[in-house]
Write a structure and sequence with these properties.
- By secondary structure, the protein is mainly alpha-helical.
- The protein contains three helices and no strands.
- It has one domain.
- The longest helix is centred in the C-terminal third of the chain and has 14 residues.
- GO terms for molecular function: nucleic acid binding.
């Protein structure tokens, strides 16, 4: 139904930011964005601001 192109965004409640939750998600979802890279709470979020530029910087280094 959702195919390969979907995203699930968690909020900052304790169960979502607990290190075991973060580790499990990192281990099971290669494209998981850790809580340290989650965007701030803002109505005008742009994925380029918090994800794409970090990935490009990694590729350049």
């Amino acid at each position: 139904m959702l195919g390969e192109r979907w995203a699930y965004q968690q909020d900052g409640v304790r169960p979502h930011i607990h290190y075991l939750s973060q580790k499990w998600l990192t281990d099971h979802f290669p494209s998981f964005i850790s809580k340290d890279r989650w965007p701030p709470n803002s109505p005008d979020l742009c994925p380029f601001d918090y994800s794409l530029w970090n990935e490009l910087a990694k590729l350049m280094n």
